[in-house]
Each structure stands twice: as structure tokens, then as C-alpha cells.
Amino acid sequence: MARVRGTGNRSTELRLVALFRAEGITGWRRGAKLPGKPDFVFRLQRLAVFVDGCFWHGCPRHGALPQSHREYWRAKIARNRKRDREVGRLLRAAGWRVLRLWEHDLGHSRAPRTLMRVQDALAAGKR
Fold it and tell me: Which domain holds residue 91?
């Protein structure tokens, strides 16, 4: 688990970068100094995008606990989910809109729908 990267993760952030580029979605930045360190920020539309790993954030579909140290992992993932909710509240209170995507939303079959969600959120920010 120690080898899992917090940023630049191939299955989440870098996959979404590739999808944005393929779809021609521009205006995003990474590494913004906002609460929770959003993976992508669209400043003009005030949209913060998070890509949550299925394991680390307790995906209801794919978030299986390891067989060893189950109580530790259950508590760890619960803390992560609580932090995610708090970060969302902080950002919304500061006037940002928050979009959370699951790692499994970036797969080939779900990517078109995920990109549509991002585009809809961006369009809503232009109004």
C-alpha cells in the first residue's frame, strides 16, 4: 500500500488527463491550493474535480476490504469518506462546485458518460 501514489496515479488522475485531452476539454489545472487538494480545478467555472480511488474512498461497488487488519482499513476508509464530505462542504461554502468521480468511471465503457458529467458541470458554471 505504501507504493500507491497520492498524485499522478495512472488509474485515476492520469487517465482523466488523457480523457480530457482526447475530448478537447481545456481550462483545467492541477495542484491548486484549495482545501482537499482537488485533482483538477477549472477556475473560470469554479469547479473542483476529485477522482476517488475505489479502494481508498470506499466505493460501494468495488471497495473491498483486505483480508488482514480489516478493522484498521474499515476505520481508515471511514475517515477518508468523512474528510471527503468535509472538504466538499468547505469548497461549496467558498463558492466552488464539487464533482467527485470514481476510479471505475474512467474505464472505456463508462468514460463517455463521465465526460458528459464533466461537460455538464462546466456548462453549468458558465451561466
Answer: 13-122
